[in-house]
Amino acid sequence: MLPYYLQLIFKKFFSAKSDGDTCSLYSDRTLIDRRNVKAEPQSAYRADRDFLVLVIQAKVIAAAMTELGFTDKSSQPVKYPLHEDLQHQRKVAKLQYLHKVSSLIVDKFVFDDNSVNGLLKQILRAQETQDAFDLQPRTADGRFPCRFPGCPFSFKFDGVSRRRHEASHNPPSNDASCQEMTSTSEDPCQSEVSLKDDVYNYNCALLADGLFFLNFLDAVSEGDGFRLITQYKFMMLYCRADGHHSNKYALECLYQAFCVNALLSPRDCERFVWNRSVNNKGSRGKNIPLDLEVEHSNLFNKAAIRNLGANVTEKAVQRISFSEGGTANMTAGVDESLNRLIGSGRHTSSSTDRDLGELIKRAVLTKVFTEVPNRQYQHFKGFERDPFKNLDMSALYNWINQHKKNVLRGNKAR
Predict the structure, then answer these.
(1) Is the bond preceding 171 in cis, omega lying within 30 degrees of 0?
(2) Residues of the chain where predicted confidence (pLDDT) is lower than 70
(3) pTM for the full predicted model
(4) How far apart are CA 206 and CA 18, in angstroms?
(5) Which of 111, 148, 188, 318 is in the most buried spot, having the most CB atoms within 10 Å?
(6) What is the DSSP letter of 407?
(7) Assign residue 282 a region: left if phi > 0, alpha if psi is -120 to 50, beta otherwise?
(8) CB contact set of 235 (below 8 Å; sequence gap of 6+)
(9) What angle do CA 357, 383, 123 make, to 5 degrees?
(10) How does the average pLDDT of the chain come out, rounded?
(11) With contact defined as beta carbons under 8 Å apart, do 184 and 176 qualify?
(12) Distance of CA 320 to the CA centre of its chain
């Protein structure tokens, strides 16, 4: 799921045609000459992931410099100055100050009040529509009666046929006309027209989605299963907003929520939530995903199979696989008794300070986190900051309820 979310980010923010759009992902790639970064993360996952992490770090620092009044990375904030004795205070006091100034950046550049309020209004509207549907009177056999006084007709569904029949009466049913007005009424928030800033909206949206991606990585590293489940709930909205391209991933997120909240026993639920990563080092923040651990296991088994030479048989391969754990522990014990030095397996990497400085410098000079009306991009012209702008909450509500019924019936999701 994590590689797929990286693919969604690159699909939305990365384009070879946007090289002229300053401070876009592709423009940043050109600036620091990251030629190994590809438009499709499945062909260069590590390169794309490292590049995105570096860009998000630069965006966070640039946002902090704009909001707090930094002049460079080594200076102190002017708008929210540090306390004189903060350096000598306890760690808790330092963390409180850090959380306070961090919340200022997050509230201004990550959370969009209009987006959140619009999403909540859609949810409330969908809930009110469902409540009105459930409270409608029905006949003894569960059908919907015509709301015109004295009409004997009834309908299996509360749909177009019922409304057309009610509209054919003279005069039409008041309930039918009210329902038509409600369904065709336009949200007044959608009619508002403002001069948008493409640069500001693009970088704020990239910062929000990038921090969500970093939260995924951190939850895996810390082995925080509960946070991962929360991330998957939010990920479901991203997949639904992407349309039919991401339908199977939205279903996967939804059925994970079903398993955690309803389908699994408490014991299996605990395993499902927390058995998602493994820590082979014993240190904090050193967890790796289970699928990566499986790749390490495959590497160990392939090395043993290669030693078989021409004697490779199915029975021999099965014997090697079954004895993997014991063999690995035995070889580790022999290496320790012989004081044999073993490499840690870490991959060396060059310093990114120069690239980080270049990205920060251009972001600050361009003032990407200062809203300038009617500032436009060429490729990302009219960029929409809200990722859930086109998400129909009523359809999402019905989609979730439909899959609840599928679970009760024993039907498969797909």
Answers:
(1) yes
(2) 113, 115-120, 122-134, 173-194, 343-349, 413-414
(3) 0.77
(4) 15
(5) 148
(6) H
(7) left
(8) 1, 5, 249, 253
(9) 115
(10) 83
(11) no
(12) 39
